[in-house]
Every structure is written in C-alpha cells, then in structure tokens.
Amino acid sequence: MTVHSASRRRLRIVAAWSVVALFVFPLYYWITTAFKNARDIFDQPPSVWAFDPTLKNFEEVFGISLGFLRQQEVLPGGGNFYMAPRLWDSIVVAFGSTVLSVTLATLAAYALSRFPFRGRHAFVAWVLSTRMMPPVAVAIPLFFIYKDVGLLDTYAGVILIHAVMNLPLAVLLMKSFFDDVPKEIDESAIIDGASRWLIFRRVVLPMAKGGIAATAVLCFIFSWTEFVFVLTLTQTGLKTVPVVSSSFVTSTGTAWGNMAALGVAAMVPAFVFILLVQKQLVRGLTLGSLKQ
Amino acid sequence: MSQAARSSALARQRFRTAWLFLAPMLAALACVAVWPLLRTFYFSLTDASLSDLGDYGLVGFENFLVEDGGYWYGLLTDPLWWTSVRNTLVFAGASVAIETVLGVVMALVMNAAFVGRTALRAAVLVPWAIPTVVSAQMWAWMMHDQFGVLNAGLMGLGLIGEPIAWTADPDLALFSVILVDSWKTTPFVALLVLAALQMLPRDCYEAAKVDGVHPVRVFFEVTLPLIKPALVVAVIFRLLDALRVFDVVYVMTGNAEATMTMSVYARQQLVDFQDVGYGSAAATLLFLVIGVMTALYLVAVRAEMTRDMR
Prior knowledge:
Order of helices and strands of chain B: HEEHHHHHHHHHH
CATH architecture of the largest domain in chain A: Orthogonal Bundle
CATH superfamily of the largest domain in chain A: MetI-like
CATH class of the largest domain in chain A: Mainly Alpha
Strand content of chain B: under 5%
Oligomer: heterodimer
Number of helices of chain A: 13
C-alpha cells in the first residue's frame, strides 16, 4: 500500500514537472537564442544545448559595451540599435501609470467598499463593459484628442491611457482587499471623531498594504506589456519595448539574435515581480476574479 | 431638527463623500475611455478620413450598408469583414476551449504535486507576464519554416516528413496563432482553477475514496460542479480578451487574410487605408459583437445555474 502510493506520488510529481517543462522550453530556447552568435542561430538542425555563448546581441541592442565582462569594443553605427533609452521609456510609463492607476483605484474602491449608495451593483456590469472596449477602437479617436491637447508622443499621454486601461481590474481588486478590512474599525474611528479621509489614510490604507502591492504589480505588468496604445499614440518621442521589438523585422531580414536580446530584457520585470510578490499576486488575481 | 431630517442629512453627506472618493477615477475614465469611444460611434456615421479630419459629413449608415443602383455596398457586404468575423469567432472559441481544458488539467496536476508547488506556480506564471509581442516573436522563430526548432523536433520524431510553414500556410496560420495564445494564457486559467481547488472541502473526497469511486467519476461528479463558478469567471475574462485579440495576430501574421481578426481589420481600415468613417464602423460592430456574445454567454450560464438549483 505505502509502496503503491509512494510511486503514484512520484508519478504525479513527474507529471507536474513535465507540464512545466512544456511551458518553459520556449522561454529557455528564446533566452539562449539571445546569447548565440549568428552561426549558432542558423545552425541546422537547431542547437538546443551546445553553442558558444556571446554577449554581442545585447551589446548591439543596447549600444553599450559589456567590456567589463569581456574585452571587446562595440562597433559604432551599423548593427547597433541603442535601445537603452527605450528601456527607460518603458520603465517611466509602467511606473507612472501604476502610481496613477493605484491612486485612483484605491480612492474609488474605498468608496465602493464602504458607502452603500445606489448604483453600486451596476459596478460589475461596468467592469465587464470596459473589458469589452476594443483598444483599437479607442486608440484612434484618442490619437486625435491627444493631438488637439498636445499629449501625443508624451509620457503623460501614454501614462494616462495605461492607467485608465488598468482601472477596472485595479478597482475590483482593491475593493476586495478593502472588504477584508472589518467595517467596525472605521465605525469606531468615526465615533472617536476621525474624518473619513483620516480613517482612509491612517487606518484602512496601511491594513490593505499587501493588496495594494499585488494590485500595483498587476498594473505594472499590464502597462509593461501593452502594445496597441503605444503603437498608435507615439511617434519618435518615446517608444516602449513591445513596440520597438515589433520593428525589428526589416526588409533586409529579421535580426533574430537582437530581437531575442531585447525580448530577454523585456522578461526581466516579469521574473523579478513573480519572485518577489508571487503570493500576493496569486491571491490578488484569484480574489479579484472569484469574489464577485 | 427632527429625526428623519437628521438621518437624511447624514445620508446626503455620506453620498457626497462617496462621490468625492469616486470623482478622480470617473473624470479620468470619461476623458480617455468614454469620450474616444463615443467619438468612434459618431465617426462610424461619417465619411471622415485620416488625411483631413476636419472635413467630413454625416452619411448615416452608409458605412454599414447602402444601396446604389441596385447594388449593395458597405461593411456588411465586404467578404473580408465576414472572414475577419469568422476568424475571430474561431480563434475565440478554439483558444478559450483549449485553455479551459488544459488549464483544468494543469491545475489538477499542480494541486496534486506537494513538492515544489510554489516553484511550479512561479514557473507557469512567466509566459503570462511577458509581453505578448515578445512571446509572439519567440514562437515565430520557433515556428520558422527553415530554421525553426519546432519543425526540427517534429521531423526528428518522425511525425512530419518535411518542414511546415506554420504561419505562412493559410490553412495552418490561424491554428498557429491559437497555439501561441494557448501557451500564453493557459497558466492564467490554471491559477484561477487551482485557487478554487484549494478551497474545496476535503471530506467530499474522503467519502468518495472510502466508497471506492473511480477518480475520473469523482472529478466529473464532485470536483467539476464545485469549481464551476471559478471556471465561469475565467471563461468570461478569457472570452472578452479573445474576441478583441490583436497583438499576437498582428505580430505573427500581420494583415494576412487567413488570420485577420475584427481588431486587425478595423486597424487596417483606420490606419493603413486612412478611412476613419469605415474603420470606425468596423470598430463599432466589433464592440456590438462582443457585447452580444457576452450577454448570450451570461444568459446561458444563468439558465444553467438555475437549472442546477432545482
């Protein structure tokens, strides 16, 4: 009996990790492609395990010499894409929109969680309706509006639309986290004479810290990965990584190695955040979706 | 002051405070979501063009359907539009079905694995968290007809005789895009289902185990009904995303007819052909199609749920 269940358990673990391997292999292959030179990239049949690692792709894409790792000069001009500023654009946009989105969502979610006013239940319908909004249908009219008010090709413009894009989910999540904070705490503070604003800032907000972190991570990732709005609303002033990445396919061929190098850079936030806040992330994701 | 007057004054004040908290969000939403969307609806009734946006006239529903000299014109008579509708529905149906089934399987496997569950969860989250553009390019490289590792692998196993042009072959392109989307979003479904699984009462299983019920029957008769609410939510969210799909299609196959979805069609009309009126009409219809699909799904779910109650 025990032998039987032990072998079944081992089988389950093997099954679990095979599923993971299936999902992780493409990532492994793309990451190693970023470290391959042109000869290994076009190797026939493709070299999965054996290749000469190189930092050339990264040096070309970011226009920086990684000479402190290896003695080599980066050739100026030809083949260099100088993407370091674009990485910075991505960080500014994702960070800015996350701050804005979380701020607006926290305020709104507190009201939705604490004040029983009419129309509160239309809220779920509203969340669904904004999820129906095709980004393409909003991006073009927004282009004209931004052109009129001078927000085209600016950080502020992209930050604003990314923040709004994330609002429904952020509000939903924050509301579920505020619902977890007992109402009695608010009520006893009101009896003590504290204002709503003071309670919100000093009592409820600190108690929902974990929830705010989870919401912020989700907003950051969604902004970091967004494509259509940046593609439409920017020209030369700024570009985020997904948009730059999509421009690597040129008439003279595709720079697969460089594309992979930029792709690896674009994966970094995903790895960092999943490692740092995985627990809250999963809780946030599931709570936000299940608790309605 | 009477009791009633005081309580109504209190209610008014609470109402005002609630709106103060809500106002910043509503203002942002009105400016960059509602206003552009209304403009799209309005432009769909005009002959506006991207080159000279100041100069346009109202044309009623001519962008959608118009009769001229015995012939019908407009979006509803464009075969490419109907191709894009079909592609979108096939994409949404197939990808959501695959993701739901695989997601449940994955969640069951993860739930059963006691060692390294946290690491497992982290690993499968990665595909979901990287930019769609990046994963689409990654797969485009793996599916490359000459140098792709997918062809090499399948040929090595003897499953295919010669290299397949996954994204260029019109018969396979849509399937390839669905495959990539499934890779990216199955983990999302799996996580939602896993959370539901972990909340299930243990005693149901103990009872089934004691009675010697086959695990497959336990799944269909105990587990599935219990995780149904979570599945419904996951499917709604995935369906809404799938019907608007743009990134993965645009990056992998561009404007190719075989994979053109409604979003890609609308963008091509709006940007490439500069036809704001016509493109807005397409975007408006897209919005309506998604709305109708969601409503139908919700009605079906509600009917199912009430039937279960009885």
